[in-house]
Amino acid sequence: MTRPDPALLRMPDPREANRVVPPTGIAAWLTVFVSAAMAFLAVFALALLFATSRLAERWSDELARTATIRISAPSEQMAAQVAATLRVLDQTPGIAASRALDDAEQRKLLEPWFGPDLPIDTLPVPRLIEIVEDPEGFDAESLRLRLRAEAPGAILDDHTRWRRPLIAAAGRLRTLGWLALALIAGSLAAMVTLAASASLAANAKVIDVLRLIGARDSFVARAFTRRFTLRAMAGAAAGTLVGMIAVALVPRSAGSTAFLTDLAFRGAEWLAPLAIPLLAGFTAFWTTRIAALRRLRETR
Amino acid sequence: MSRAGPGHVVIALSDVSYSYGDRPLIAGLDLSLAQGSFHFLTGPSGSGKTTLLKLCYMELLPTHGAVSVFGTDAATLDRDGVARARQRIGIVHQDCQFIDHLTVSENVAMPLSVAGRDPERERENLAELLAWVGLSGHADARPPQLSGGERQRAALARAVIMSPDVILADEPTGNVDWEMSERLLMLLVQLHKMGKTILIATHDLALIRQAKGHLQARVLRLREGRLQSAGSDL
Predict the structure, then answer these.
(1) Residue of A205, A209, A212, A213 for testing the chain B interface, max B β-carbons within 10 Å
(2) Are residues A127 and A78 in contact, defined by beta-carbon separation less than 8 angstroms?
(3) Nearest residue on chain A to B58, judged by CA atoms?
(4) What number does CATH give the domain B36-54+79-229?
(5) Cross-strand pairs, A132
(6) Please, which residues have CB within 8 angstroms of residue B68's CB and are 6 or more apart in sequence?
(7) How much of chain A, in percent, has pLDDT values that exceed 70?
(8) What's the pLDDT at B85?
(9) Bridge partners of residue A95, in order along the sequence
(10) Of A46 and A192, which is predicted with more confidence?
(11) A-chain residues near B61 (CB < 8 A)
(12) A290 CA: distance to closest CA in chain B (Å)
């Protein structure tokens, strides 16, 4: 009997153990689709994380470096107390600059409430002094003590009261971003587990054949983990790419304070989403491996 | 796990019982398969032939008694140990059991792959083996495209590609015509002459009679959960 040409024989490749798993099936498409969708959402969650971090940092920096002194005094003492306050500020370490707001600036501050024609010079409106700190900052408590002695009508407002809730809000948004990422990873793990379990059930015969011919659990598990890891990575890569394009297309605002329009990556931040396909592959690898080994323990 | 030599017992069942739930199928059964022996296992349908084979290749563990495979109690083997032992046992399953989306050559060579051997270095052997079982022209076919006899021969080729010490065949001629039965029998006789230990479960008495002209085979009859020796004549 003639024998076939050995060179033409199709041989199993030990490096491609995943070939023993049929390449089609609903589980395959489910894994690719879910990985792509989760990666797309993860890109936005990452952008949210970066945006909230920038926002918290900006609020923290800008607000921490400015302060205001409000002087309430009888009109005949007002000029003296302003001068005394500015003198104290000049001598206080940690203050880079200070200046009293003029009538026009004060009128502009009050304009939203009283309109443009407020006769500010005839009203007992407190004078405001703006302080800009240097990077080291100043000691607010000792400044208050000195002001109490030299300008009793001067009240220091270092913005702490309203800066804290803003920074806390930014921190909570950041926590929400992390939570969203954790939920996305958890959902991906759950969906891959479901898909892998479905595939393991659908391919029970393949598993039985492999065990029958002496395959170890590690060989069988590798066949499934490799298949699902590659699918999850491919889906996540596509989802990440689309997500990055979508983030790049979010309209930008000229102002630096807008939050929603600051949902973007900047500079090296663009590298962060590239980790998503790797993390998706890592998640798929372990969830599939655990599901496969659990399934294999049901057979001998 | 010891290597088998001529006359050495490769598989031994001692006082083995097996029950499916409350229904005992095998009771207090003893069996020794010596290296190089040829056994037929016969008996009516449902008598436990397949169960006995499954006990031999450790798919089942006895509910009582001990199964020793290559000198090791099967109950003490972990899953990797069972896998290693199966690499020394060629199994021809009743319904062949292939991976249907792979080609015949890939299926036949798969035991090499799962054992960590490089199938690329076995191309010559695989070609010889496919020619020996008469499947030269079907190397690239998928198993569902094969006839019953071709599937049985492909299963036999897969069972022997690792040059196992033992071959266990469950109704290998169950779905083939007489001519093909004879051909399969001749392949098994050749393997026996190479020193392989062979146990064939079959209810095909004509096959056993046919074998008589070619070798000394021991015939065991399984009845009511116990083995009866039918001698070498049938």
Answers:
(1) A213
(2) yes
(3) A300
(4) 3.40.50.300
(5) A66, A97
(6) B9, B11, B12, B13, B14, B74
(7) 91
(8) 94
(9) A133
(10) A46
(11) 300
(12) 16
Q: Enumerate the residues of chain B whose CB falls inside 8 A of the CB of residue A217.
A: 79-80, 83
Residue B72: predicted pLDDT: 93
Does residue A286 have a pLDDT over 90? yes
State how far the Cα of A296 lies from the Cα of A208, in Å rounded to an integer: 9
Structure tokens at B57: 């290749």
What's the pLDDT score for residue B108? Answer: 94
Residue among A217, A224, A222, A14 at smallest CA distance from B83: A217
Residue type, B208: I
Instruction: Assess whether pLDDT exceeds 60 at residue A86.
Output: yes
Residue numbers of B between 7 and 26 with CB closer than 8 Å to A: none
Task: Determine phi and psi for A69, rounding to 5 degrees.
Answer: -115, 130
Decide if B153 touches A, using CB distance below 8 A.
no
CB interface of B with A, residues 191-210, below 8 Å: none
ipTM: 0.86
| Domain residue extents for chain A | 17-60+167-296, 73-152
Count of C-beta atoms within a 10 Å radius of residue A260? 9
Computed over every residue of chain A, the mean pLDDT equals: 84
The pLDDT of residue B234 is 46
Question: Which residues on chain A are in Cβ contact (under 8 Å) with B89?
Answer: 214
Tell me if B113 sits within 8 A of A18, measured CB to CB. no
Nearest to A221 by CA among A279, A296, A282, A280: A296
Residue B7 above 70 pLDDT? no
Contacts of A10 in chain B (CB under 8 A): 103, 105-106, 139-140
Choose, out of B97, B113, B126, the residue to mutate when testing the contact with A (most A CBs < 10 Å): B113
Which A-chain residues 270-299 have CB contacts (< 8 A) with chain B? 296-297
Question: Do A214 and B86 count as a contact with CB atoms less than 8 A apart?
Answer: yes
Structure token digits, residue A107: 């009128």
Ordered by start, the domain boundaries in chain B are: 36-54+79-229
Residue B71's Cβ-count burial label (10 Å; 0-12, 13-18, 19+) is middle
Q: What angle do CA B102, B104, B110 make, to 5 degrees?
A: 70
Contact call for B86 and A217, based on CB within 8 A:
no
